[in-house]
Amino acid sequence: MKKKLVVLIPHYNDPEGLQKSIGSIDEESQVDVFVIDDGSSLKPNEKELIDSYSNGEIFFNYLEENKGLSYALNTGIEFALKNNYKYTGRLDCRDLFVKNKCTKQLAFLESHKNIKLLGTWAKMVDEHNNQLYILKHPINHKKIKKNMYLNNMFVHPSVIMRTDIFSDLGDYNIKYTKAAQDFELFFRIVKKYETANYPEALLIYEMSLNSISSKRRKLQVKSRINIIKDNFYFGFYPIYGIARSSLLYFLSRETTTKLKSVIKKQ
Question: Glycosyltransferase 2-like domain: from which residue to which, for each copy (predicted)?
Answer without folding.
Answer: 7-169
